[in-house]
Amino acid sequence: RQRTVSVGSVVRIKSNGRRAVMKQTGGVPGLNLVLVAFEEEENDHKVKRGDVELVTSEELERDPFRPFERNTNEGNGNDSRAVNEEAGVKDDPPKPFNDQRDGKR
Fold first, then answer.
1. Quick check: 40 pLDDT over 80?
2. Which tops the pLDDT comparison, 68 or 83?
3. What torsion, rounded to 10 degrees, do the Cα atoms 53, 57, 62, 68 define?
């Protein structure tokens, strides 16, 4: 059973009741701040160290933490080329690099 807050711990922010995961506990600019990532939210936020409390393992069993998940379209066959073709955008091959600058040297 965990008793101390560390990186990766699921915590509750006392001031707003939201749950978050600890991203960084030390070296966060500001007085006694830690870095957290709220449930289902992409950006990290600074909060006061004293404003976090550890979420119990019982609560996590009842209601698991839901981290932010980026929609990557992995495994469905949609790569950038296919998406661009559907949108009517052509992927031109890269042009060779020519450092002659209009023939002047």
1. yes
2. 68
3. 60
As a whole number of angstroms, the distance between CA 63 and CA 65 comes to 7
Question: Is residue 99 predicted with pLDDT exceeding 60?
Answer: no
Residue type, 84: N
Q: Look up the pTM and report it.
A: 0.64
Q: Which residues of 59-98 are buried (b: 16+ CB within 10 A; e: fewer)?
A: eeeeeeeeeeeeeeeeeeeeeeeeeeeeeeeeeeeeeeee
Three-class DSSP labels, 55-89: CCHHHHHHCCCCCCCCCCCCCCCCCHHHHHHHCCC
* pLDDT over threshold 70, residue 56: yes
* Torsion angle of the four alpha carbons 75, 79, 83, 88, in this order, in degrees rounded to the nearest 10: -150
